[in-house]
Design goal:
The chain has four helices and five strands. The protein is of the alpha+beta class and 137 residues long.
Length: 137
């Protein structure tokens, strides 16, 4: 697996492309697929708000649209006006998208704060008792 530092750098790079003219809170994500490829995503806001898309989902949807559906980890960073400020955890909708494609016990979520400090969580830690494909079997 890529080092956390490399994923953090790619997430920060993605954050700089965020389109956040309303909240001014920019988020970047770097999604590591099991094949070793990294998919970047940024948040994309919309004046109507509902059609906005989070960085995490942007990264997942890019990967899935290219036929990739197996993932190891994601790094998420964010902050007001693109200045990293504390941890930016995924929203509930993004956690649900992660649950669709990832093993909650194995998939890692890296949150970085811009000071060089980061923490790694499993999806299960951030989304206990999540509803997934097996629940429909």
């Amino acid at each position: 697996m890529l080092q956390a530092k490399e994923l953090i750098e790619q997430a920060v790079d993605a954050m700089h492309r965020a389109y956040a003219p309303y909240s001014h809170f920019k988020v970047g994500a770097a999604l590591l697929a099991k094949n070793g490829r990294v998919y970047q995503g940024c948040n994309i806001e919309n004046a109507a708000y509902t059609p906005s898309n989070c960085a995490e989902r942007t990264a997942f949807f890019k990967a899935v649209s290219e036929g990739v559906k197996e993932f190891e980890a994601i790094c998420i960073v964010g902050g007001k006006d693109g200045v990293l400020s504390g941890f930016t955890a995924p929203c509930g909708v993004c956690r649900q998208v992660m649950r669709e494609f990832c093993d909650p016990k194995e998939f890692k979520i890296i949150l970085a704060d811009g000071t060089g400090h980061y923490e790694t969580f499993t999806l299960e830690e951030l989304f206990p008792m999540g509803f997934g494909p097996a629940d429909l079997a």
